[in-house]
Amino acid sequence: MSDRFIVLSGCSGGGKSTLLEELRRRGHAVVEEPGRRIVQKELASGGQALPWLDMTAFARRAMAMALTDREAMRDHPGLVFFDRGFVDAASALEISGGEPVQDDLAAVHRYNRRVFLTPPWPDIHTGDAERRHGFDAALEEYERLEKTYPALGYEVIVLPKVSVVERADFVLDHL
Among 37, 66, 78, 99, whose CB has the most other CB atoms within 10 angstroms? Predict the structure, then answer.
């Protein structure tokens, strides 16, 4: 199952969602970022599990959602591209003062060994109502994930700063 599950991770605002949409356009299954879905729901309901209010609660929900997403795609026959995943959420929980990324849990819930990271790209980074942190915080997040994935046995492939079509070609060529 894990070989078909491809993670797009990296710098917030680095073009993951745009790349995901291009992969969807090409007929691939995609799963949108747990964090963004949680933020949308919490903002709509007046909830508190927001990264700027309660990072620990937010990260725990993101971990649970990432696991639910994996299970929902378990029987899908082709490649499935995830905008972030379990490791991203577990890493966020670790820095919020929660538990460290658990090697055994991360080993059970594996993705494809290749993880594609969007690098910091100030020219395209923007904030919005759901992404309230600045570029410096996005850079810190990238640097953390750039270390976390290899520590868990993943091969990190940094995406080039090229058009979304070229990025999609790059990802598919590497798979």
Answer: 66
Q: How many folded domains does the chain comprise?
A: 1
Pull the structure tokens for residue 118: 């969007």
- Tokens 């291009």, residue? 22
Query: Are 82 and 115 a contacting pair, CB within 8 Å?
Result: no
Range of the domain at 84: 2-174
Prediction pTM value: 0.88
Distance of alpha carbon 37 from alpha carbon 130, whole angstroms: 9
Q: Which residue type is seen at 15?
A: G
| DSSP sequence for 6-32 | EEEEESTTSSHHHHHHHHHHTT-EEE-
Residue 71 backbone phi and psi in degrees, to 5 = -65, -40
pLDDT per residue as tens digits for the range 83-106? 998 888 888 888 777 666 665 566
